[in-house]
Amino acid sequence: MASICIASLSAIVFIVFVGIWHIDLFMMDFGVYWRVANGPISSAYEHRASLNFPYPPTMLLWISPLSLLSKGPAYALWIVASVAALVAASRRHLDRSALTLTLIAPPVVYCLLTGQVSVALGALILWSCSVNSRIAAGSALAIAASVKPQLVLMAPLLLAARKDHSAIIWGGIVLISLVLLTVAMFGIETWAAWLGSLDHFRSIVVRNGVLNVTITPASVAVLWHLPPVPFLILGATLGAWIAIYCCDGDPLIRSAAIVTGSLLASPYAVIYDLAALVPFLAWAVARGKIVAVIGYLGGLNIIPLLVTAFELAQVAPAKIETDPQEEASASRESSVID
């Protein structure tokens, strides 16, 4: 009960604080999506002083429908769809208190306020770990990779540890198909433009102080003026261990392991990417785990990721205990390509 009270009160304070002092964040990232969707493809990766579009060209496929609506209605629909996806993916794994904590978590509120895509991607990753169809599971992870690959870097490793070769194959097929589709629709030069824009984006991140809200070992190393490569290697090692160690956990644990391991191995991610971890952290908080509150609140740069890794290491062994009939059923489902 204490952990729930602390998390709830802190989340409410955060919501009030953001609503009063950081209303300038409203629709900040969504505005970039809408601008790119309504502009010529050739201008998607042009260099700007701020609010650049750092996503791969496959993201252009998913935001193109935004051109059908004006900015306000499009944002409203975006938020409703994101929340609906989060609730739909989480409700089978969370009780009412944990689901409520999920919806008011600071990373989720921050993500929704700015119009970021991480809430929807977190729901998609959790759903991919819950669904029986290996085609659907692999396809969902491929879609997530086509938007933010840094959230699913460790998905192939976790699937390989589970011997879920069908999901790996179908995920690869879908992702390659999406890449080829963007080449056909937008031209290979769009990919060249994206790659050419990344150095500028990195310089803007440093210049505009975005590093202050980064969460990965490598990006925090840059913030602290340390060489990022050793931290990238260390993070990737820890992330790989988390993915393998948690590979037999339930869907909530596996999705959190994929995201945690991937972010630890990523060169860059920021606070709203923690929204993809909130269902697991809310589950932990609702069960009285005080340390999980630190991760749930999402502050302190890399600390939430380390807290999540710690919580995963604590609960994964206990959560994989299933009866023989359930294990046999799960094994049969994983071996069938729908």
Automatic annotation (TrEMBL):
One of its GO terms (cellular component) is plasma membrane. One of its GO terms (molecular function) is hexosyltransferase activity. Its main location: membrane. It is found in: Cell membrane. It holds the Pfam family GT87. Keywords: Cell membrane, Membrane, Transferase, Transmembrane, Transmembrane helix. It comes from the Bacteria. The chain crosses the membrane at residues 5-23, 72-89, 101-127, 139-160, 167-188, 229-247, 259-284, 290-310. It is a multi-pass membrane protein. InterPro entries: GT87. The keyword Transferase applies. Belongs to the glycosyltransferase 87 family. This is DUF2029 domain-containing protein. It comes from Sphingomonas cremea.
